[in-house]
Amino acid sequence: MNIFQPAQPSLLERVWLTIRYPYDIIRNPLDALLSVPALSFLLIPTFSSYSTSLNLLFFYLTWSALILSNSPLKVEILGTLGIRVLFYLLPALGFLAFDGATPNLASKLKEHGEVALPIGEEQGGRKGRWWKIALVSTGNVLLGVAIQSSVELLFTKILHIRSALRISTSLPMPWGIAIDLIRGLFLREILSYALHRYALHHPDSPLTEYHMNWQHTIPAPYAFVSHYDHPLAYIVHVFLPSYLPALLFRFHLLTYHMYLAIVSLEETFAYSGYNVLPSGLILGGIARRQERHLMGEGKGNYSCLGIMDFVAGTTLGEDVVENVREEGQNNNVRERVKGRPKGRKPKARSRS
């Protein structure tokens, strides 16, 4: 018996690591990525933070235990499913429950009032198809995870080549994570625009009828609508633009799951229908463009963030540049208000 060989985690420990993984994957690497001490690890070691270092150490141990005690495919698929559940399905279910439990309050927070309520009269009431939309949306999420699993099995078991995503005990560097996230989101923007416009809204495309008869029959969006579509249209509209960048750039699995968490949150809020969204992230403009696309018979606003629509001139309503300018002006106003001493009023200009 080798006393230096680490003990293998028990079944309960493996289950606990798997449950905590989606939470740890966002908290610890994101703390490291966004904190100044993480960048100073290479530049100014004197000012590095012990708490950040300990977070990274504990996460590295958790990650290593997951990789060494489970198959890479299992870690990838359960992690992907966990991210989708934590950052899309649960928030969407929470929004649905809030809309159903407090319709009067929810309608005041919705951009289009009662029309945007899943149980509103325009949507068919409480006996409407909101539950079917939720089930189809959940089924499409599972379909995407199944396709991702099939790709990995094709690469590793049939073609006997390296896995589609990089899976190893080593952790990606913060700068590498940032670069992959930026280029992944940018390529997703390009792919979503091209596929959405020319595969789902072109008169000669066979998928146009499916897309229009499914997602575009919803009077106003709510969170579950972002993944509600015919399965073939869903693959083209949602899955491929999100997965292909990770496949082409061969993301590290940690980077991919962080990227997927960002995408999931953007999808949740962009289709939520609320007019009160987290400020500073231009989510309000993204949501309004998605609403105009869905309620305007798909005549514009094909991309996720609005960048490609601005470049191609297919924006309906305000474009992304106007959103950035508006957000910058709002931030300047807030900074001026915060910087003004309490009880002091601005000086009136003297008339000459």
List the helices and strands and how they pair.
Layout: H1 11-34, H2 36-43, H3 50-69, H4 72-101, H5 103-109, H6 130-158, H7 174-200, H8 207-214, H9 231-249, H10 253-270, H11 283-295, H12 307-312, H13 320-339
Helix pairs in contact: 1-2, 1-3, 1-4, 1-10, 4-5, 4-6, 4-10, 6-9, 7-9, 7-10
Account of the 3D structure:
With 352 residues, the protein is mainly α. Helices cover 65% and strands 0% of the residues. The chain is built from 13 helices and no strands. It has helices at 11-34, 36-43, 50-69, 72-101, 103-109, 130-158, 174-200, 207-214, 231-249, 253-270, 283-295, 307-312, 320-339. Helix 4 (72-101) crosses helix 5 (103-109). The protein starts with 10 loop residues before the first helix and ends in a 13-residue tail after the last helix. Residues 32-48 and 345-352 have low confidence and may be disordered.
Question: How is this structure best summarized?
Answer:
The chain contains 13 helices and no strands. The protein has 352 residues and is mainly alpha-helical.
Largest sheet: none
Separation of the first and last Cα atoms: 94 Å
How many runs of DSSP E, i.e. beta strands?
0
Indicate the low-confidence ranges by residue numbers: 32-48, 345-352
Shape: globular
Q: Structural class per helix/strand content? A: mainly alpha
Radius of gyration: 23 Å
Question: What portion of residues belong to β-strands?
Answer: under 5%
What is the helical fraction, as a range of percent? 55-70%
Give the SSE string.
HHHHHHHHHHHHH
